[in-house]
Design goal:
Layout: H1 6-23, H2 34-55, H3 64-79, H4 84-92
Helix pairs in contact: 1-2, 1-3
Length: about 90
């Protein structure tokens, strides 16, 4: 396991933060968009895969480019407070 590699630990933490933020999104009266719900679910599965593989000692490591991309996505998810529809809307403009 790559437990001694700080890049791996940071990547696992960033992926966990994305999963937590997306999991606890509350729409508070906003319109339900089925496609956004499915996209959020898919992102939770994708990003949740990293910490689970790490916990079960099957995580092979990461690269700086992947880590930096995960940081950007994490910042974007937190900027829209977990609202995937807003994230896609911001990317379209």
């Amino acid at each position: 396991m790559e437990i001694n590699n700080p890049l791996v630990i940071m990547n696992v933490v960033v992926c966990t933060l994305v999963v937590i933020r997306l999991s606890f999104f509350r729409k508070n009266g906003a319109t339900h968009r089925r496609w956004a719900s499915w996209l959020a679910y898919l992102l939770i599965l994708i990003y949740g895969h990293v910490p689970l593989r790490f916990l079960f000692d099957h995580y092979d490591g990461t690269r700086w480019a992947i880590f930096l991309l995960n940081i950007v996505i994490c910042i974007a998810v937190f900027a829209v407070r977990g609202n995937v529809a807003k994230l896609i809307s911001a990317l379209r403009h």
